[in-house]
């Protein structure tokens, strides 16, 4: 019988209001990148909130609510990257990314040139098939010639 991996809501709430950093020295770059991505989304959401609702609210209330949403969202993003289960996932991601052998710059250019050439060659081939089949269908009367 598999173990139940769901945690009670109280554990999640206590984790969101904690101050400690889970495994501080591990997965630092991946956590920072994840936090930055979530922070950008939160900041854009607060900005959109202010642009949409801010002018309709009383003087200064739009700024206050958008600021509270921004602060709360940033705190939530900071805590989410330190929830043990998610932090362990990010640590594992960074460990796997360190094992990747990245191509050299010249190999990257050669590979990109091959991909771009193949894309254009296939586009030309599909264009040729389209012309041939269009001609065949017009010749057999299945399609009418365009005016």
Please describe the topology of this protein:
Layout: H1 9-16, H2 28-53, H3 61-80, H4 84-99, H5 105-140
Helix pairs in contact: 2-3, 2-4
In short:
With 147 residues, the chain is mainly alpha-helical.
Order of helices and strands: HHHHH
| Fraction in beta strands | under 5%
Structurally, the number of domains stands at 2
Count of helical regions? 5
Helix proportion range: over 70%
Major β-sheet profile: none
The rounded distance between the terminal residues' Cα atoms is 70 Å
As a whole number of angstroms, the C-alpha radius of gyration is 27 Å
Number of strands: 0
The secondary structure category is mainly alpha
Shape: flat
* Poorly predicted segments: none
Mean pLDDT: 86
Textual characterization of the structure:
The chain is mainly α and 147 residues long. The protein folds into two domains: 14-100, no CATH class; 103-147. 72% of the residues lie in helices and 0% in strands. It contains five helices and no strands. It has helices at residues 9-16, 28-53, 61-80, 84-99, 105-140. α2 (28-53) runs antiparallel to α3 (61-80). The longest helix has 36 residues, at 105-140. The termini are far apart. The model has no long low-confidence stretch (mean pLDDT 86).
Question: Which features characterize this protein?
Answer:
mainly alpha, flat, 72% helix, 147 residues
């Amino acid at each position: 019988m598999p173990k139940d991996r769901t945690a009670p809501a109280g554990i999640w709430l206590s984790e969101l209001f904690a101050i400690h950093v889970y495994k501080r020295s591990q997965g630092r770059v991946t956590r920072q990148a994840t936090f930055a991505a979530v922070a950008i989304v939160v900041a854009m959401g607060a900005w959109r909130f202010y642009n949409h609702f801010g002018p309709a609210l009383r003087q200064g209330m739009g700024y206050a609510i958008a600021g509270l949403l921004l602060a709360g969202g940033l705190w939530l993003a900071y805590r989410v990257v330190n929830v043990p289960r998610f932090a362990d996932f990010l640590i594992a991601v960074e460990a796997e990314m360190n094992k990747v052998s990245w191509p050299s710059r010249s190999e990257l250019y050669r590979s990109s040139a091959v991909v771009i050439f193949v894309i254009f060659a296939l586009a030309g081939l599909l264009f040729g098939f389209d012309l041939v089949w269009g001609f065949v269908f017009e010749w057999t009367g299945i399609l009418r010639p365009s005016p």
